[in-house]
């Protein structure tokens, strides 16, 4: 059956979107972590924290409420003064954060500490949220920008957490349905599990469609267009944004190219492999065909093949 905007707004508001009460709870937990870690960094190292920014889906209001399939991940970016930073400090930065986290939190308070390629992650037992502590070396010429270092490749990438938050806010301001669509697409991703496809990729693909086609009039139709774009383009089309229009276009040879709206020299999809690309396209094609069929059939259960068994549009 074809779904009205009100149907999908009900689904988003009652099933997908994180409640304001839970948001306040998570904010308090993250704020406490920030305060403690900032204090410990100052006391136990020569590093100077210039500022801290909550980032990612949590800060963009595109995060899903926690379920068995939908995790709560909060990114916290620590901007570090780069004046006295050397290679040794960079190599040990995540190790330092990891060691400080283990001092701050007793083992009974967390279920896991993990060092990843660009962050140290702590997962809290009671709330179940995971917090990624992302250290960046602040760019002195542009305080909102910072250099993020990959522990494995040793490559560095210029990032801007406030810019990404503003990018999503700008799209939401231009299209009141944008965040609803992002959450719907993320629910499909978490249900269908296309390998290599990240939440940020989804946000950017939907932003690209909005820039190209204008604000959403029909939520269901735009969602089907999102799936159709992936399936029909086979992710061979370069995705870029007006924010980069004044910059010199950089060539990328990666299988999938989605340009960072805050850094025209960064392809945020560079890690998607050819095999992952093929699987993403095939999974999107199947979902697109199912969504098109669901749109014309008088059977709400067909939509559950796209979003999972918790899909509903009324009490």
UniProtKB/TrEMBL annotation:
Q: Which UniProt keywords apply?
A: Antiviral defense
Tell me where on the tree of life, at the top rank, the source sits.
Bacteria
Name any one GO molecular function. double-stranded RNA binding
One term under GO cellular component: membrane
Q: Which GO terms describe its biological process?
A: defense response to virus
Report the SUPFAM superfamilies cross-referenced here.
Answer: Nucleotidyltransferase, PAP/OAS1 substrate-binding domain
Q: What is this protein called?
A: CBASS oligonucleotide cyclase
Ranked from the top, the taxonomy reads:
Bacteria, Pseudomonadati, Pseudomonadota, Gammaproteobacteria, Moraxellales
């Amino acid at each position: 059956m074809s779904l009205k905007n009100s149907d999908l707004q009900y689904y988003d508001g009652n099933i997908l979107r994180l409640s304001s009460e839970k948001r306040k709870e998570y904010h308090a937990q993250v704020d406490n972590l920030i305060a403690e870690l900032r204090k410990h960094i100052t006391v136990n190292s020569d590093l100077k924290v210039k500022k801290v920014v909550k980032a990612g889906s949590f800060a963009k209001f595109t995060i899903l409420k926690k379920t068995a399939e939908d995790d709560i991940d909060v990114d916290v970016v620590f901007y570090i003064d780069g004046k006295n930073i050397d290679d040794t400090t960079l190599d040990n930065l995540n190790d330092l954060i990891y060691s400080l986290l283990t001092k701050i939190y007793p083992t009974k308070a967390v279920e896991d500490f993990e060092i990843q390629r660009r962050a140290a992650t702590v997962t809290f037992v009671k709330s179940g949220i995971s917090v990624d502590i992302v250290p960046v070396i602040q760019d002195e010429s542009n305080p909102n920008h910072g250099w993020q270092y990959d522990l494995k490749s040793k490559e560095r990438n210029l990032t801007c957490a406030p810019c990404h938050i503003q990018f999503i806010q700008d799209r939401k301001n231009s299209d009141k349905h944008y965040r609803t669509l992002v959450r719907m697409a993320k629910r499909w991703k978490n249900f269908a599990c296309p390998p290599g496809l990240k939440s940020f990729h989804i946000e950017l693909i939907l932003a690209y469609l909005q820039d190209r086609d204008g604000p959403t009039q029909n939520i269901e139709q735009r969602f089907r267009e999102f799936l159709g774009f992936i399936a029909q383009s086979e992710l061979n089309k370069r995705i870029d944004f007006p924010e980069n229009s004044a910059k010199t276009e950089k060539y990328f040879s990666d299988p999938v190219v989605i340009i960072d709206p805050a850094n025209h020299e960064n392809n945020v999809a560079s890690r998607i492999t050819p095999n992952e690309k093929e699987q993403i396209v095939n999974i999107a094609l199947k979902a697109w065909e199912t969504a098109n069929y669901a749109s014309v059939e008088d059977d709400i259960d067909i939509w559950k093949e796209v979003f999972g068994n918790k899909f509903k549009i009324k009490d």
